[in-house]
Every structure is written in C-alpha cells, then in structure tokens.
Amino acid sequence: xxxxxxxLGSHPDFTGKGVTIALLDAGFTAHPDVAGRIAxxxxxxxxxxxxxxxRPPHPWEWHxxxxxxxxxGDGALSDGVYRGLASGARLLLVQVGREGxxxxxxxxxxxxxxxxxxxxxxxxxxNISLGGDRDVPLPDSRVNQLAEEAVKxxxxxxxxxxNAGGNVEHRSxxxxxxxxxxxxxxxxxxxxxxxxxxALYTSSYGSTADGLAKPELLAPAMEVAAPIVVGTPxxxxxxxxxxxxxxxxxxxxxxxxxxxxxxDLPEDLDVHSAEAIRAAVLLRVHDRKIVAAHYQHxxxxxxxxxxxxxxxxxxxxxxxxxTPAAVKEILxxxxxxxxxxxxxxxxxxxxxxxxxxxxxxxxxxxVPHPExxxxxxxxxxxxxxxxxxxxxxxxxxxxxxxDRDAAAFSRQEDGMWQVEIARPAAGxxxxxxxxxxxxxxxxxGNNARDLDAxxxxxxxxxx
Length: 463
Hints:
Layout: H1 4-8, E1 20-25, E2 38-43, H2 61-72, E3 90-95, H3 104-121, E4 123-128, H4 142-152, E5 156-160, E6 182-188, E7 199-200, E8 206-207, E9 213-214, E10 217-220, E11 224-227, H5 233-246, H6 249-259, H7 274-287, E12 290-292, E13 295-298, H8 301-318, H9 324-334, H10 343-346, H11 353-364, E14 373-376, E15 380-386, E16 393-397, E17 407-408, E18 410-411, E19 416-422, E20 428-435, E21 439-441, E22 449-451, E23 457-462
Parallel strand pairs: 1-3, 1-4, 2-3, 4-5, 5-6, 6-10
Antiparallel strand pairs: 6-7, 8-9, 11-13, 12-13, 14-15, 15-19, 16-17, 16-20, 18-19, 20-21, 20-23, 22-23
Helix pairs in contact: 2-8, 3-4, 5-7, 6-7, 8-11, 9-11
C-alpha cells in the first residue's frame, strides 16, 4: 500500500517543523508515532481522561489517534514508511465530548477552550474531524460563530466535510459549514501514485444554510494508512498476523500451533497445510484492512481533513507569514478539478500538495501574497485575481448583463490581474471570470459561491 506522501507527490523538504497543529476529536492515545511532540492534552468534558499508557485504550480514542497520526505521525512503527506529511509538527490534542458522544454544545466548548489557549501553545493549524447536529445559518450557530472568530484570530481551520453524500440530507454540518474554514471532501484513487485516477467519495456536499458551497477541495478519503491503536486486542492480532505473513512455508505449521489463536485463525484450519494457513492469514489480513504490523487502511473525510491540515503545516513552515485567507486561496488556486465530476461535490477539485507548498515557498522568497477577490469601496468595486498562466481575464456577471468583454482585467507589475467597475445598486449579483476566451471559473478569492445551471459555480457578490 502506497504511503500518503507518495500518493500525493508531496514536497520532501518540509515536515511542519516549528508549527503546532491542534486536533479536536473524540479521544486520543499517546501513539509512538507522535512521541515527544505532544505539546498538550485537554479533555473539555471529561476530567478523568488522560494519555496515560498505564490503562487500556477506550474505543472512542481510536478515531483521534488515527487522525493525529495520519496528519503528523513520523512512522516510528513502520521504519518511517507510513509517516504523515507534518511529521515534524507539534500537536495539541483536544478531546471533545465524553465517551464519544459529541453534539454542538461540546464542540462549542472545545472551540471556546481553544480560543483561550491557542496563543499559549502557539497553535497555527486546527484539524476538526467531527461534526455537530445540523446546519443552521451563522447567526444561529454558536459553533460556526466560534469557528469564524478563530479564523479572525489567525487560526487556519481545516474541517472534514462529513460522509453523508449518499443521503437525502447531504449538507455539511457545523463547523464544516462555517464560511471561512477549509472544508475537505474526499476522493478515491485506488491507492495509485499516477496522480490522475480519481473518483468521488461520498462526502457531504451542497449549499449551506448561509448559501455557501461546501466542500472547497478534496483529499484522499479511502485506503488511507492509519495506526492500529497500541494495547488493543486488534493490535496484538495484527502483530500475530504479521509474523505469519513474513514466515516461510516450512515454519507455518509450528507457528499456527503457537500463534493461531492470537492471529484469529479458524479453529478448524488444517494446520498441516501451508497453503491453507497462508490463505486463512491473507483472508484475515484483508478483512481487518491490515497493511503492516501496526497499521491498517481507513476511509472517510475524517482522514482527508488531517492530510490537508498536514499540507497547511508544511506551507506555514515554508512561509510563517501566511494568513488564513492566503492559505485557503493557495489551496484553492492550486487544486485540480476532476474532469466530469459535479462541481457541487468536488468544489475546486483535488488538493495538489506539492504545488500548494511551492506557492508558499515562492511567496516566502519575496513574492507577497495578494489580497484577491472583490474589494467593495464607496463608489467602485475592485477585483483582483492571480493566475500566472492566463493570457486574458475578463469579468462577467449580472451587474454587466454577462457581457464577457465589458470588463477586461489588466495585468499589474506584481503579476496580479485587476479590474474595477462602478459600484452597482444594493443587491445580490452572480459573476464569473472568463479566462483566455475559453474557460469560465468562479473567483477563488471569494468564499461566496452558488451552483449555476451548468453544474459549476457562480461567485456571489452582495452589496
């Protein structure tokens, strides 16, 4: 099974060193892959919770342990093979809820605690692989209000979109529906490294109660390598199965007598047949999704989100001056759409981990990050757009009767495309950018988007 770094073709020079990632999840254990890099642990609603290895792990601690290692594990139990992209980052672990029970009020308390303590732990990135109760407008959602406040204070919130894409109600819920967070859906690439074979995962999607399109981008959500929690029966079984996998045929009979029960092999297995033993072992490995002695593969946007968070940590290591808006704009700008996939399900497309980090590096080397999107002033609106490959950019929308030639951008000395129009009357206007006389695209600098009649997105300007 290909490690995440190879699947994404990620940048090899950055590990999130010097960056602290906060992870909000149902529970955690102190896994060896993150040993020495846990800056703090806090359980908001459970005074008895701890990371002590002296007690057996609880079932609800699997999820957070796996999301943490997916983001920032160093692969200590796999000789570095199954490491996260932010293997050098520090981690703040925030347990939400009690015994795996999580609702809006628990998430709100966790975010309140984070806002009070983020500066103390020097948190820059926050991964949230959980969701609340239901999507409601921002004025009615305490969770989304706190998420927006966190972004205003300089935190980059990366949130799993959810896995309800196959349901009648398939919208993301808070905090994934908050306007300024990076909401992450998922794709399936059959664990390939070619970078071109993509299918959509059943991620939550659709217009939020505030009229915003979510998710913004996609990351791997199937067959993601994650740890088997140390100290659990599953861990011991995986270890036993690994011994069978590596043993020569001549030793299988003796090994079956000694370790057959530990490996969960059938009681009626013919222990004198190496072929039968090998087949039984491979079946158990497949059923338990085991990819190595201490790892299995997992599915869901819960694991797509920490992969994006790990890339954000790399970006911040490369360029600590990046703001939340700049990070989000770079991720969107460098994402690659899946051809033929509905825009409402994929947002701007598949995250390009290497290009995102390279864009951060370029800005760290003297190219300042521009403020893109519409700037509304008293008598005019200024639109700015960054695209080094474009030859011509025009602005068309309801404010100019969709005339694709009425408002042509000019390229500035800093490489930005810029155009201004007279401020229209108060109202809600759809618009798009028309690139090189061929391609329509929504404005990556504007969070407000809505599905159009062609299955793509219009940007929304509200005056």
